[in-house]
Design a protein that fits this description.
This protein is an alpha+beta fold. It is 15% helix and 50% strand. The chain is built from 1 helix and 6 strands, in the order E-E-E-E-E-E-H. The longest helix is centred in the C-terminal third of the chain and has 12 residues.
Length: 78
């Protein structure tokens, strides 16, 4: 889902998209950026598209909505 207005995280970072990802037949495994748990590409997980106006776009994979919430809290803490 593309956000109508990008969500400012602070500095040059903005959340542009939030979606649920699942790629069948994909054996990719990532570490959740919050808890360090495993994020399997062929299981449902949250994917966040972040724009860094200084260096381009990034995709962050989160194992749960709790980890996404914690990551947003951390990124927006002043």
């Amino acid at each position: 889902m593309e956000l109508e207005t990008p969500y400012a995280l602070g500095g040059t970072y903005y959340v542009e998209t939030v979606s649920v990802g699942k790629r069948t037949d994909d054996e990719t495994v990532r570490d959740c950026v919050v808890c360090g748990g495993h994020v399997y590409a062929d299981d449902w997980h949250l994917v966040v598209g972040v724009l860094d106006t200084g260096s381009g776009r990034q995709r962050h994979h989160h194992c749960s909505d709790d980890c996404l919430t914690e990551w947003l809290k951390l990124m927006t803490a002043a």
